[in-house]
From TrEMBL:
Family to which this protein belongs: Belongs to the binding-protein-dependent transport system permease family.
A Pfam match: BPD_transp_1
Name listed for the protein in its UniProt record: Binding-protein-dependent transport system inner membrane protein
GO cellular component, one term: plasma membrane
Species per Swiss-Prot/TrEMBL record: Pandoraea eparura
Keywords per UniProt: Cell membrane, Membrane, Transmembrane, Transmembrane helix, Transport
């Protein structure tokens, strides 16, 4: 007669096995991020009014059925303005962080794999750029050459590329010392293969977390520039400019100021929640 299986006994490995599911905070963050990404894509097409359309003389009107978020200082529908501003706030930040993260990581892989004088020269140039505050660099460039979407993307991308390079190089130096990278060198693999197929996949998660953090920094940088009048120019608007335009009516038209600020806050907090969840899962997996 076979002994019955004792289902109450669970192996220590099974107890320590990490869950594949994201925590609730991470799932909520992903839902909010996806919502704003969708709004950035379709927002201008579903807005009830044009980006600069003045719909009446009732400035700072309260929330109503016709204007769910009220109107601004010129009588424009705030919901439509926020939907039109989503592509600029999110799209420009995504383009800039892609330039910063991809450029910095690619350069870090090349310098770590090549080494020698090339690594030393690039590292010293990056150290020099890191000594310049991002906000100051952005203010100088925009004030000197004017404000436009391509210039804002280039300014934010170049400003945050040194930080992405530093993170990428620290990861690449550790990864290239691994046995599988050394084995690829012994096999005679080319530099492109080693960096793209041996090193980069093992750096992907930390680089992705850094990508999210830099996206937050760039959103806040661009919103700050718009608040100072150096970002997206009227009649187009991002959320930072919406706050600046309506700050004079805070006492009588609070939704026109608070709602764009809440939009910025929900986007940045949601991205931060996703990053924390990803890092937490990786840490729990390493502890096992």
């Amino acid at each position: 007669m076979k002994n019955p299986v004792n289902t109450s006994v669970i192996s220590p490995a099974a107890r320590r096995r990490p869950s594949r599911r994201l925590p609730i905070a991470g799932m909520i963050g992903i839902a909010i991020v996806v919502f704003w990404l969708v709004m950035a894509l379709i927002g201008p097409y579903i807005a009830a009014y044009g980006v600069g359309g003045v719909i009446g003389d009732d400035v700072f009107a309260p929330m109503s059925m016709h204007h769910p978020l009220g109107t601004d200082y010129l009588g424009r529908d705030m919901l439509s303005r926020i939907l039109h501003g989503a592509p600029y706030t999110i799209g420009v930040a995504l383009a800039a962080v892609s330039l910063a993260s991809l450029g910095g990581t690619a350069l870090a892989l090349c310098t770590a794999a090549t080494g020698g004088w090339f690594d030393a020269v690039v590292s010293r140039v990056v150290d020099t750029m890191l000594s310049i505050p991002h906000q100051l660099l952005a203010l100088i460039i925009v004030a000197s050459f004017g404000s436009s979407v391509p210039l804002l993307i280039l300014t934010a991308g170049i400003g945050y590329m040194p930080g992405a390079y530093r993170i990428g190089r620290a990861l690449a130096v550790n990864v290239q010392a691994m046995d599988y990278v050394q084995a690829a060198r012994v096999r005679g693999e080319r530099l492109f293969y080693i960096t793209c197929f041996e090193m980069l996949p093992n750096m992907f998660r930390p680089v992705l977390a850094d990508f999210g953090l830099r996206f937050l920094f760039i959103v806040l940088l661009l919103s700050g520039l718009s608040f100072l009048g150096l970002g997206i120019q009227p009649p187009q608007a991002d959320w930072g400019l919406l706050v600046r335009e309506n700050i004079i009516g805070l006492s009588e038209g609070a939704p026109a100021v608070i709602v764009p600020a809440i939009a910025i806050a929900t986007l940045t907090i949601a991205v931060n929640m996703v990053i924390d969840s990803m890092v937490g899962r990786k840490r729990r997996g390493n502890e096992v």
